Amino acid sequence: MQFPRATSVVPNPILFLDCGLERLGKRSTTVIQPLRDLDTDRCYNLAMHFHTVMVRLKNGAPELSEDPTPVLPPALIRSEQLWRDRGRRQTWPKDHWAFVRAAIEPVLYAKIEPESEHYANGLLNPKGAIQARSIELSSVSFENGPLPTISGYAQFQLTFDRAFTDSGELYDWMDATDWMDWSLCFGFRLEDGSEWDVTYDHAGIDFELIVP
């Protein structure tokens, strides 16, 4: 029997493949991908299930071990001044909030750095950090200094060897494997390349499977 030529070849026990996710254009997709195992020269039809996952971070605060002010964008400094001028309130007028989002969202980053247990139990993303596809700020407070405490959303494309129908099944998988909130990095990446993670001190991290 002649098998289709594999598009990516890696040894067992874990098969990884960069699947061209940009071309899929769907929140949840299943693809049957032929792969050849170098150890046994056998072909496998690997079912890859692509899921969009939204991660919500609540009140994440960076640990300010040094003063980041010299490398802060002027718009971020201005955002802090607006917050103080308004009496440190949690709500913003619409025009001010648009300014704050435009100042802060460009310097936010989010990524998931999976553990070996995730790959061994069905995660099929290529090894390495999984970068967020989009980030949205939902609240901000400058109570703790020039880098604010933030809440926000980050969207990821994750690939598994199984299909999940809802967030509960994704949580069951993490419970049996390893919790991905420990693998989440979410915070500020400034112009000098420094990263200020806000997940060390937060009020909650939630994962939601976005179903079609």
Brief characterization of the structure:
With 212 residues, this protein is α+β, with helices and mostly antiparallel strands. It has 4 helices and 9 strands, in the order ββααβαβββαβββ. It starts with 27 loop residues before the first strand and ends with a strand.
Description of the structure:
The protein is α+β, with helices and mostly antiparallel strands and 212 residues long. It has one domain. It is 18% helix and 34% strand. The chain contains four helices and nine strands. The protein has helices at 74-85, 94-104, 116-120, 167-176; strands at 28-37, 42-60, 108-112, 130-131, 134-141, 149-160, 184-189, 195-197, 204-210. The strands form two sheets. Strands 1, 2, 5, 6 and 9 form a five-stranded antiparallel β-sheet that branches. A four-stranded antiparallel β-sheet has the order 4-3-7-8, with no helix packed on it. Strand 7 (184-189) and strand 8 form a beta hairpin. Helix 1 runs antiparallel to helix 2. The protein is elongated. The protein starts with 27 loop residues before the first strand and ends with a strand. The model is unreliable at 1-26 and 36-45 (pLDDT under 50).
Helical region count? Answer: 4
Question: How many structural domains does the protein architecture include?
Answer: 1
Mean pLDDT: 83
By oligomeric state, this entry counts as single chain
The biggest sheet, with number of strands, parallel, antiparallel or mixed sense and barrel status, is:
5 strands, antiparallel
